């Protein structure tokens, strides 16, 4: 070997990234190896060897020094004044990028989530039948507003536990709370059949049922975010079919079984249906991504500060829940007060939920191409208009038309409601963000139906009720459009 040859020196792979001081450079978080090579060639180009001073940097740029180290397994790890990632975190990010978007295991998750929504949201949306039945029989001495508190407490607790369940989900704790909540829901349904006093219904059908449903519904939706990305809308649409089936079958079963076997055995049969339905997700649902510790606590107030679109969207969800479930709660009893036969009126709840099935399927097929808000904002406006018209429908045929139209539009909103939440932050925080949105929406759900009941008692009719609930939906649609504008910076575009 020629002794005059010099030993090759270690190549310097260090370089500097620049980011604007007045904003966050999204592309900087996705620096690929080709970007690294480009930076290296720019640094070591012949022109740089001749002129090491370079051009002066803009005063608006922030310099971040980055050095690359070669790990034993061939992975490059960046260190410097920016944040560093461990190999485990990088592996988790690889799993996020490598989303299955299909396959047997992923579709089994969809199947399990559909059954979980059947037993949770589907059961909850059957409340209108119980509202009407209690007003006429078991709790006829109580006002509609008082009885509505049972359903509204149930609705509130469907979404309020999302704060806890979402945080537990992000930390990797999923299956044990899910199984425990399933046991609570089945037990509470058995106990409802034994209730005779108002406070007993509040505890069993309001508090216990709501908590059980809440610990099931939110985490089961978050699981989909681990298995689907490009086809997330389709997966959400198929999942929402489960709640529509439950909301269609359970009200009819309830009203048909009560005259045949009595209220107690009706609730026992419903409990066995829920037991079977919840056994499917207990076996099929599973997380895919490793748990991640994210800062901010149960309720991440920093998310509101850092993301104005997220803040605006959460506000819109509160208004949405103030009005969305009013028609579903009172359409049965409003038909009775207008002289429609009680033997038909209970079908209106099932018709509404059956029609929502179509809306949810259509949402799944459309939102991946159009954008979630581009689709659910217009249907939210339509739901508001139909709510305005509902009190003026006084015959069986006109109320059936209202049930069909409202079921479709509300179904699209329910199916696509969570999808923008997935897009307004990182997937590692998906459980907590979902929980935050649902918990804030729960506040609207808690007060919406009782306010409508109080308005009904004060006015003696449902015209003012429809005006209140319809206005809430119109305002919610406006906030959705404002969210899109904040994200895109313009009034049109896919989101």
Automatic annotation (TrEMBL):
Q: Where are the transmembrane segments?
A: 106-126, 146-164, 171-192, 198-221, 233-253, 265-289, 310-331, 343-363, 375-393, 399-424, 436-456, 468-487
Q: Where is the composition biased (Basic and acidic residues)?
A: 36-54
Q: Which Gene3D superfamilies match?
A: MFS general substrate transporter like domains (1.20.1250.20)
Membrane topology according to the record: Multi-pass membrane protein
The name under which this protein is listed is: MFS general substrate transporter
| Source organism of this protein record | Lentinula guzmanii
Single annotated GO MF = transmembrane transporter activity
Please tell me whether the keyword Aminoacyl-tRNA synthetase is annotated for this protein.
no
Q: Where is this region: Disordered?
A: 1-57, 73-94
UniProt subcellular location: Membrane
Point to the regions of Low complexity compositional bias: 76-86
């Amino acid at each position: 070997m020629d002794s005059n040859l010099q030993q090759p020196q270690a190549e310097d792979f260090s370089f500097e990234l620049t980011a604007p001081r007045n904003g966050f450079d999204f592309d900087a978080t996705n620096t690929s190896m080709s970007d690294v090579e480009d930076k290296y060639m720019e640094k070591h180009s012949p022109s740089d060897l001749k002129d090491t001073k370079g051009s002066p940097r803009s005063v608006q740029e922030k310099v971040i020094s980055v050095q690359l180290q070669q790990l034993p397994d061939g992975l490059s790890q960046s260190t410097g004044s920016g944040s560093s990632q461990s190999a485990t975190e990088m592996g988790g990010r690889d799993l996020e990028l490598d989303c299955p978007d299909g396959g047997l295991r992923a579709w089994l998750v969809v199947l399990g989530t559909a059954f979980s929504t059947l037993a949770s949201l589907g059961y909850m949306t059957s409340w209108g039948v119980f509202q009407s039945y209690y007003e006429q029989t078991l709790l006829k001495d109580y006002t509609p507003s008082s009885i509505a508190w049972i359903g509204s407490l149930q609705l509130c607790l469907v979404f309020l536990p999302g704060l806890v369940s979402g945080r537990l989900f992000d930390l990797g704790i999923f299956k044990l709370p899910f199984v425990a909540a399933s046991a609570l829901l089945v037990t509470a349904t058995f106990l409802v059949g034994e209730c005779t006093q108002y406070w007993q219904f509040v505890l069993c059908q309001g508090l216990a049922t709501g908590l059980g449903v809440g610990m099931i519904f939110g985490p089961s939706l978050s699981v989909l975010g681990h298995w689907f990305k490009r086809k997330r809308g389709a997966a959400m649409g198929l999942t929402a079919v489960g709640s529509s089936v439950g909301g269609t079958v359970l009200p009819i079963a309830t009203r048909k079984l009560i005259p045949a076997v009595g209220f107690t055995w009706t609730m026992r049969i419903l409990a066995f249906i829920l037991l079977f339905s919840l056994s499917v997700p207990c076996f099929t649902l599973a997380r895919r991504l490793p748990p991640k510790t994210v800062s901010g606590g149960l309720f991440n107030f920093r998310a509101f500060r850092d993301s104005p679109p997220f803040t605006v969207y959460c506000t819109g969800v509160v208004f949405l829940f103030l009005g969305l479930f009013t028609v579903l709660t009172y359409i049965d009893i409003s038909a009775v007060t207008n002289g429609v036969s009680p033997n038909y009126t209970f079908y209106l709840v099932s018709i509404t939920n059956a029609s929502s099935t179509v809306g949810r399927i259509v949402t799944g097929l459309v939102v991946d191409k159009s954008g979630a808000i581009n689709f659910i904002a217009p249907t939210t406006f339509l739901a508001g208009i139909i709510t305005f018209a509902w009190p003026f429908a006084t015959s069986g045929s006109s109320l059936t038309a209202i049930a069909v139209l409202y079921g479709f539009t509300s179904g699209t909103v329910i199916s696509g409601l969570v999808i923008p939440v997935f897009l307004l932050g990182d997937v590692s925080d998906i459980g907590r963000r979902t929980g935050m949105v649902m918990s804030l929406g729960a506040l609207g759900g808690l007060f919406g139906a009782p306010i409508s009941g109080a308005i009904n008692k004060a006015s003696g009719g449902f015209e003012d009720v429809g005006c209140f609930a319809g206005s809430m939906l119109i305002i919610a649609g406006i906030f959705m459009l404002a969210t899109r504008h904040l994200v895109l910076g313009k009034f049109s575009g896919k989101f």
